[in-house]
What does this fold into?
Amino acid sequence: MPAPIRLRELIRTIRTARTQAEEREMIQKECAAIRSSFREEDNTYRCRNVAKLLYMHMLGYPAHFGQLECLKLIASQKFTDKRIGYLGAMLLLDERQDVHLLMTNCIKNDLNHSTQYVQGLALCTLGCMGSSEMCRDLAGEVEKLLKTSNSYLRKKAALCAVHVIRKVPELMEMFLPATKNLLNEKNHGVLHTSVVLLTEMCERSPDMLAHFRKLVPQLVRILKNLIMSGYSPEHDVSGISDPFLQVRILRLLRILGRNDDDSSEAMNDILAQVATNTETSKNVGNAILYETVLTIMDIKSESGLRVLAINILGRFLLNNDKNIRYVALTSLLKTVQTDHNAVQRHRSTIVDCLKDLDVSIKRRAMELSFALVNGNNVRGMMKELLYFLDSCEPEFKADCASGIFLAAEKYAPSKRWHIDTIMRVLTTAGSYVRDDAVPNLIQLITNSVEMHAYTVQRLYKAILGDYSQQPLVQVASWCIGEYGDLLVSGQCEEEEPIQVTEDEVLDILESVLISNMSASVTRGYALTAIMKLSTRFTCTVNRIKKVVSIYGSSIDVELQQRAVEYNALFKKYDHMRPALLERMPVMEKVTTNGPAEIVQTNGETETAVLETKPPPSGLQPANQANDLLDLLGGSDITPVIPTAPTSKPATAGGELLDLLGDLNLTGSPVSAPAPQIAQPPFLLDGLTTQPLFNDIAAGIPSITAYNKNGLKIDFTFERSNTNPSVTVITIQASNSTELEMTDFVFQAAVPKTFQLQLLSPSSSVIPAFNSGTITQVIKVLNPQKQQLRMRIKLTYNHKGSAMQDLAEVNNFPPQSWQ
It folds into this structure.
């Protein structure tokens, strides 16, 4: 068989390949020849073949079939064979392959070899890919070599010991005696690897950390000698003596001085010397200074030393090297909480970094700028950050806007400044703000009563002709709907009021409705604002009715639902409209994500326990939501799902007053999804003559559910045409006493096999002498056709006293549930 080509020739041949396919063909041909040579047990060229195989492995081609050949080379007596064999083992083997265990004995023999270079190969291989089993077997030999007088072997043994400790931490104590004299070594290589070994032991064992703290003076002395020593060509890098060893010693000092007063005190002086004597014109000096800063910040150093460290980082910010500026910003960000005043001195330099072209530096500078904001500099810092928000890349705008919101909320010097700042953000980067920005600003405006006229005027001018920033338009629409009367009346005292007519305000909101840039949510805000203005404006109510009626046939289901319900307010419930659309009260700040029991499903709101209350009355106390559960006293009761009117800015169809009798009943708790009740598409309702409910009230007898203390409640029944499982109960409450009953609230609950929905009552006052009634609709879903049972709770005021009573209704006629 002819002699295989040399490695150099193979490299030259492969480099002549013009395409990947041609190179692959050459590699496959050579691999086939190498396999044939391995099969023939050709000892003469095994070393050459393995070397070529390692080159192909470096190119990314499979070379696993050469693993055993590496072991054969390791077992050879030739140094050249051993060198290639150990190199192949380090590249082709790891502890996941069982083959590596076969070389344990060879490594043990070579660790005891008479030639230091063979011993060095074995130490390198064990330190590179030795498994925990190999480390346990060979740790004794490594420990012996660590004590030898040969500096070439000691430095390799120290690094191998680091690998052994990482694989088998419990062997750490074996190397403890050998470490005693390591720091006395004059050879820089041994000294360097010894520091690495001590660092590893201190990081992995608190006991070792306490033991080695007594070495701090010795480490300080070594570092001082390095700084003060003259020029040494062997270890000099850009005029600095052995910077790699200096960095390693500084890292070890950082570990030893952490949370220890005595050790920190012992190294304060040398750290100050390093910080002041190190040349900063070269990158080598900057590396040492950076490690010095990290060490000063991590130990219990003196305050003056910490200020010196931060000043070094401040000088780094002026460096032309982007990497140095980046690490300076990152380090300052870590220290700003503990040394805030020292970092503040470099505020102008940090702000200048916002103009850097490098996006990584920009991001770090932005984060650090927000960390520097406090009550004293909030105006100046916000001015710079708002300028940055104007000019920064889109990927920064969301984080920057969120940071400005948080800082403004925390440090705002006045409510007007707070509102102006947030409006500036919405004007500049409205499309990038988080979803909670709109409700948060609305809450801020609502709670700033004295700023209502100023705010609505500013927002009105901000959206004139520009609807591109949707969150800004949403807030403006909400404010115009709430405070449109203040806008028209020109009551603004903070700035010169503008003259606006009712028609001009409606023109803006109608423009928002028809704008192509308006999202569905924004149109919902605008339509609700127009509806609110029907109680705040006097001359344009007919125009508002017309706009609302137009959107009753909108293709947008959300707008359509709102418009139809608002139309119903105008026609059937006009007496309730002023109370429903009255101005929002001051909102309380909620720190959580809202009530824990509320979840959104398909636009409807599911609530674990809620109550129905007429709109003119105020909100019930929070703890009253649980009264019904107390009344029912059992775990087999399903929650009540009311549809209560609200004047809150509507963002989902399920939050609006359901005046049309929607049959989409929500279910009991979220863990058990409710069956959906089919209903015809809304747009087809006008094409069918089939009534929603069967007109068979005469066929289902009515019942008296309650009759006590002059209060009488009757139930009448209907069955749904679209779903026979739905029973619609209409309650009629009458009062036979001589005085009216006020603040009347009716609550009901049914077992879990049912689902119940309470619609809004017609009023909260029951007239005296049976001169009028309150009506309220209850919908009950009974898919299993079980006998209907219900518990009711009644609360009202009568003769100046608050009345409350409980009752159970079990006499439902069979026709109502079968």
About this structure: The longest strand covers residues 726-735. The radius of gyration is 41 Å.
